[in-house]
Amino acid sequence: MSGVAAVLSRRGQHTLARREARRFHLFVSPWVIGFVLFTGGPILASIAISFTHWNLLRSPTWAGLANYQKMVNDPEFWDSIGNTFYFGLGAVSLGVVFTFALALLLNQPLRFQGLFRTVMYLPSVVSGVATALLWLNILHPDFGLINKLLALVGVSGPPWLGSTEWAMPALILMSVWGAGNTIVIYLAGLQGIPKTLYEAAEIDGASWWRRFWSVTVPMMSPVIFFNVVTGFIASIQAYTLILIMTEGGPANSTMVLGLYIYRQAFVFFDMGYAAALSWAMFLIVIVVTLIQFGLARRWVHYEFH
Amino acid sequence: MLVETKAAPDLRRPGRATMTSGQAERVRRAQRAGAYVLLIAATGVFLLPFLWMVTTSLKSDAENLAFPPEFLPSSFHFENYARGWSGSLPFTRFLVNTIVITALSMAGNLISCVLPAYAFARMRARLGAFLFALMLGTMMIPREITLVPKYILFAKLGWVDTYLPLIVPEFFGVALYIFLLRQFFTTIPQELIDAARIDGASEWRILWKIMLPLSKPALAAIMLFSFVGNWNQYLESVIYLRTTEKFTIPLGLGMFSGQYATQYNQMMAVSIVAMMPIVVLFFIAQKTFIRGVTLTGIAGR
Amino acid sequence: MEMNRRQMLALAVAAATVPVLSACAGDTRQQRQAAAPTKSGVPTLDPNRPGNDTWPFAEAEQLNNSLTWPKTDVADPASKVTLTVAITADVIAEVRNAQFDFFFHKRHPNIEIKRETSPFDAYLTKYMTQAAGGSMPDVIYTHYSWAQNFIANDIFQPLDEYIAKTPEFDKQDLPVNALGYYERDGKLFGLPTDMAPKLLFYNKDIFDKAGEKYPDESWTVEKMMAVAKKLTSGSGAEKIYGFTPMLLPEPDITPRALMQYGGRYLNADESASLISQPEAQKVMGMWLDLLNKDKAVPSLAELNQVLAKVEPFKVGHAAMTINGAWILTELAKQKAFTWGAAPTPKGPKGRFTPVIGSALAMYAKSPQKDAAWIYLNEYLSSTGQQFRRISAPARQSAWKPNAEALGIPQDVVETVKTAMKEYGTGDGVLKLPANKKVVETAKPIWERVMIGKTDLASGLKEITDKITPLLAENKIA
């Protein structure tokens, strides 16, 4: 608790407000201390690094704006932004709808509920290698499960990961399938809806669909909002899945910004450029998030303002 | 930190007093059957990777490479489990290490996320919005780029080849979990808090007696994420842990892949054993996701 | 069903106490294990007698005693030192390395080895990060493609002085055509541990079935491609490729395919691109035809299986491949098909093959360089490589005994030895600091050519245009 609190209390006008502010600072202090000790320094360092050339083996040398200039003129960077939005929009929009539906289903008081829930969560904890191997086989153009099923209905399936058009949809499909954490958050959120609201709606003779829109969605809106915001952040940063499955190929069609940064940092060891790209990514994420916070006023229902 | 209260949870199925007609009952039955069909179909899709792991773990070394891959092994090699677990690396030791790191980190996460989340959700302060934005901002910077500066920091502290870089930062809040909890705290009716304040309850008491009990599902979710995240942590473990005796399970699993060949069968065998604690924990945690547990007695809002 | 707070508290307490309890239990278990190292059925590990089913301690002990370890004039440290050794290994090699270190410590009681093992995929990230922190282990593993970057940045210590102090160090036993990866300004900064040429491997069963004669030293590249076309058959899961994998602009493409026609990817000091020159373009065009006209090599879509490290040749679905001799161990173990190895085919300008591998180096700022040399000298000696039973030893004299122990046929060993001595080379293999950038930049462009989105000539020109600015980094180094 801190100098900040002291300064604030000196300026404070109202005792109650001052007391609340002091308590606020006490309560947030674990995070603030952690930020000062462990997070803030490396973040500031990464700003500094973005103005240098640094290969990790020698001391960084001053680069001025060179890395940012390089970025603006780098066609692969711009391509990767396009790919990032393709992946992000696909994964988040599909993911939010699909996982919400699944969570509603898993929230029904059915037999073996726990078992069903556990199974749906499995993909997000099984080994990444197993997942990759499995999908490589499911998506194989000749003997993969998906194309075999398509062949049954007379459709000749695309070569999926080997094709510049279909690799990204395949990755989006995979990411939605592994979204167990989102389901968990929805499930947790669904428990917070007072059942009295449903009872009241039912007495009013509201249909299932109406109850869903007038009770479930508004009451869940802070949780949906959380999932959309963090889902976007995560999918804009995502790279591990793509690294394992396609390494950004074929022909750079799945090269997203996260993977591009990873490559600059830990394949090329061009830390200055990687840092500059990271701050570009930060800017993108923050704009997207601010837009979402702006839109949230229209649809997210909070108990406390 | 979790105190017993008398807020007796209601375990009854939601009652539907007004519904009497047989038609409604039939509709409900059809809905239920539909739900089962959907769930069973989804189960097939979601269970697949796990079954894949199981069958791979039972294959012979030669069959690992069959092309196209066979789903079922031609003979069952249960010895892969013993060979994988202690045939070349001391996985029992790794398990102990992983438990130590995970348990401490999880405890740290829980303690350090609840308080800031409550503050961000329910307290007014001049710096509140700024700090909240700053915290969200830290989530938006890709982890790869702070990895090296962080390493330099911890190396200067002499923490390399110890568990400290993996555990200590976990005691100072995780932005994602704070944000999640904060969202849940905002859904709790303000009337409850106002009533408690009028009764003269302190903020601590409100947190303990109202917020936490009502946010049990969210706490369970965070516990689960924290457990899984720390249990499977790879990148930072690779960088900080040097001596083989200090390895965690994910590091040991990484060693099944060589530069030219990977022993998938043993790797999957050990992976299955290693994910069991997560499955068990999930099964326990999901039990808190039961409707009607929490917000009883605030009808008529 | 629901968990009340008391239960949750109990769970939290239990979770917090487990580590404490198990940490206590950990020590006692180790002691017990030392007393009773083998339990029936389940294998156990004993730090005082390292070994397992693959590498029984008794075998290691016997082998260690039967070998003569090399000498050096560099003296053992007078007092105890700890030597940190950073290497990469998988579960199998790790146990053997533990055994090596165990016996090394017995021979040199004053040198305590602290071995840091990492999987190959994580190794470079780990140690580049550590280098940023200003320190490195005393002994450092390096892939051939990383070494020049480390050398240019003064991370590695020149070893010539130490070699001079070691009279019985037989430099001629090393692949002298391929030491260039670790040389700079006439000094040697690393000693290879494994080093192997690429050979033409073939599936005898597929050849027999088609009544084709096996490849031999008379084969030309055209002949190989013609036979590949002939041996291609089937589709879907039954598909047999004549050859795998498709030629890509990878670091070793010059001696692997271009030199045979007088072409090169980059010039000798890696400062200019030559891939769009007619000689190189001719070769790239030949391979493109083999892919798109003859369908004799896996396409981009089919190649995805490689990600799972399931190479069509290794699973009996390709008649021929050109691959490093390090796959011999794996081939020798499999029973699915019979195979052979032949010299790589020659072209109008002769026969070439890349020789690549990895090395160990000494940290330039290591406080115990003498101890580090003693370790390097023994670990990398013919004796050391025989003890470790590695499949592609850099010491030529270790090939024969290791091949025998690993069940690799002797005629194949002769093919390898001839390749190493006569036509194998490190020349033309990209090794300067920009090599990763060059490869990754060229790859997507070549992929567009492979799927027909760009034609050959403009694709190769685009590669030249894109990689030329990157090559400046090689000049600074």
Key phrases:
heterotrimer, A: 305 residues, mainly alpha, MetI-like fold, 2 domains, two-stranded antiparallel ribbon, 14 helices, 2 strands, 71% helix, disordered N terminus, B: 301 residues, 63% helix, 0% strand
In short:
The complex is a heterotrimer of chains A (305), B (301) and C (477). With 305 residues, chain A is mainly alpha-helical.
Question: Which secondary structure elements does this structure contain, and how are they paired or packed?
Answer:
The complex is a heterotrimer of chains A (305), B (301) and C (477).
Chain A: H1 3-11, H2 15-49, E1 52-53, E2 61-62, H3 66-72, H4 75-106, H5 113-121, H6 128-138, H7 145-152, H8 167-177, H9 180-190, H10 195-203, H11 208-237, H12 240-245, H13 257-266, H14 271-299
Antiparallel strand pairs in A: 1-2
Chain B: H1 22-57, H2 79-86, H3 91-122, H4 128-139, H5 143-156, H6 164-167, H7 175-186, H8 190-198, H9 203-214, H10 216-231, H11 235-240, H12 249-254, H13 264-286
Chain C: H1 5-35, H2 57-66, E1 81-88, H3 91-107, E2 111-118, H4 120-132, E3 139-143, H5 144-152, H6 160-164, E4 183-184, E5 187-188, E6 191-203, H7 204-210, H8 221-231, E7 241-244, H9 253-258, H10 278-292, H11 300-303, E8 318-324, H12 328-333, E9 339-342, E10 353-362, H13 369-379, H14 382-388, H15 399-406, H16 410-423, E11 424-425, H17 435-450, H18 456-467, H19 472-476
Parallel strand pairs in C: 1-2, 1-3, 7-8, 10-11
Antiparallel strand pairs in C: 3-10, 4-5, 6-8, 6-9, 6-10
